[in-house]
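User: Please predict the structure of the protein below. I'd like the answer in structure-token form so I can feed it into my own downstream comparison script.

Assistant: Understood. Taking the following sequence of 191 residues as input:
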Amino acid sequence: MRYQISGKQIDIGSALQTHVQTELGTVLDKYSQRPTDANVVFSKSGAEYTCEAVVHLSSGLTAQASAHAHEIYAAFDGCTEKMDKQLRRYKRRLKDHHKVRSEPVELLEASQYILAASEYDEDQEPETLQPMIIAEMETRIPTLTVGEAVMQMELAGAPVLLFHNEGKTGLNVVYRRPDGNIGWIDPDNAK
């Protein structure tokens, strides 16, 4: 497994890096999810440290957690506890589905764009309806079942997830509704 441990405007010593690899490795081995890489970032805001961790699993799912504390090790430990809880829930859901994925998740290549926010008054019409692209990145769209997509969205803490529906030809979307339920958009079933 590949670890990337860094600090935003703070130095990360080798003792902390070793601690992160040992503790995070223990949590990941406990649930044997075959992680491919982990990205852990430490930052400091005032007197408080923040630890953000993102772990990519070979199943195509991503688990992320973050925590704040007045000590850097305590921030990491809080983040690890949240990651442990997420992976435990994920493993329980996999057992509940009685389905073991025999092959890794297929990923479709796509382009992702970041558009500039519109900066005009409500009374004033924009000069053009074409938004300005400020960044372009490569992204991957996973091929998942609807249940796996909902699980991935919840693990990532994302409000929406675009995925290729396994066994179908089109793209689907799952999203969290304002009433707390999960919405699912399936264009193939449109009449």
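That's the full token string. The CA atoms of residues 124 and 172 lie 36 Å apart.
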